[in-house]
Amino acid sequence: MTAGTASDLLTDMVSQNHGWLVGWLRGKLGNAFDAADVAQDTYVRVLVTGRVPEQAEQSRAYLVRIAKHLVVDLYRRRRLEHAYMEALRHLPPAQLPSLEERAITLETLCRLDAALDRLPVRVREAFLLSQFDGLTYSAIAQQLDVSVASVRKYMLQAAQACFAVMAA
Fold first, then answer.
1. Rounded to whole angstroms, how far apart are CA atoms 5 and 52?
2. pTM for the full predicted model
3. Distance between CA atoms of 153 and 124, rounded to whole angstroms?
4. CATH code given to domain 97-167
5. Domain boundaries, the chain
């Protein structure tokens, strides 16, 4: 497929499906502003990947699949943002981070959350039990019904995922 052809396919996809996609997203999200944002992000994702279905009838299914993932990301980001803002409410005004620091922290939290979400369930559970519940490796091993060596392996995997986010 040539670049001109891919561009034509994308243009056709947008012109034939944009109104429908925004309407579908408005029904899912409950407002036009979020629907317009997610629709735009959907087309950006299509553009970045360079994968445009050649068959017009495949376009809507493809767009829906991408949009559903973006809606999940939107809700996840909002949950994290709400939790972060709630934590900030407990700080004295003099200790509040600047707006720039808040934005950087929130972006980092979202990236860490996404990295942890990609981990196998047991790895994620072990990491969360260690970091948020303060359990020892022995207690985690007992709770997950695995060996302490497995917990060590899980923690290494989780730490590597977190470090990869921080290095990026």
1. 10
2. 0.72
3. 12
4. 1.10.10.10
5. 3-86, 97-167
